[in-house]
Design goal:
The mean pLDDT is 92. Helix 2 runs antiparallel to helix 8. This protein has a single domain, classed as Rossmann fold. It is α/β, with parallel strands linked by helices. The chain is built from eight helices and seven strands; from the N terminus they run E-H-E-H-E-H-E-H-H-E-H-E-E-H-H. Helices cover 35% and strands 17% of the residues. Strands 3-2-1-4-5-7-6 form a seven-stranded parallel beta sheet, with helices on both faces.
């Protein structure tokens, strides 16, 4: 039987409890074997002026996931100097994990911009997507987008339709709206973030004077 491997990409600037809870929930809901947390070294769609170097964010990610054996830090994009286009990363992982099924996790906000992703049609046909519904109004917009693209979608975690297919997933949590931007803003105004990030990450940020500590 093929393994089911989740893929969660991001700058993790910094990694926080919301990232970890998302991974745990999706891992269990979709019976995944593991989730690779792919740190984006050169994100093509983000302003990198104030972005800490990839090795710094990588160290925080490793510390955050130490206690979660099925949530695995992945440095595949750090080994390349070119922009971290998702389709390139998927091609590399497919060669490394031959014959496995991949499930790419995306927030609904990001997926609504899928047409701006490089080679997005090929990407939709190469991996399953799990789209996290973060806002109620996104459901209708997503359905319209996928119908236009002639891509099937479902709300049943246990179904295994053929590619291309998008799985919609939603859950309730006080951590769902947590963001790295919010954490950085709180640090800038000297507000506590001790309950928002793992203690190992908080210690590392303070020791390295990150984000204005």
């Amino acid at each position: 039987m093929k393994n089911k491997i989740g893929l969660l990409g991001g700058t993790f600037n910094p990694v926080h409890h919301g990232h970890i809870e998302l991974g745990q929930r999706v891992l269990n809901a979709f019976n995944l074997n593991k989730i690779l947390y792919i740190i984006s070294a050169n994100p093509p769609h983000k302003n990198t002026v104030d972005l800490p170097p990839a090795p710094v964010r990588w160290e925080m990610l490793k510390r955050a996931l130490t206690s979660f054996p099925n949530l695995v830090p992945c440095d595949v994009e750090m080994k390349r100097s070119n922009p971290s286009w998702t389709y390139r990363t998927i091609n590399i992982l497919k060669s490394q994990y031959s014959g496995q099924n991949f499930y790419f996790l995306s927030g609904s906000e990001g997926f609504l911009k899928i047409k701006t992703w490089k080679n997005y049609r090929k990407l939709l046909s190469s991996v399953f997507f799990i789209v996290i519904l973060r806002k109620g109004g996104h459901k209708e917009k997503l359905e319209t987008l996928l119908k236009e693209e002639n891509v099937s979608f479902c709300y049943d975690q246990n179904s295994s339709p053929a590619l291309p297919c998008i799985h919609f997933y939603s859950y309730e949590s006080d951590k769902l709206q947590l963001s790295s931007t919010l954490i950085r803003e709180k640090i800038q105004v000297c507000e506590s973030v001790g309950k928002l990030v793992p203690k190992e990450v908080l210690k590392f940020m303070k020791e390295n004077n990150l984000y204005g500590f």
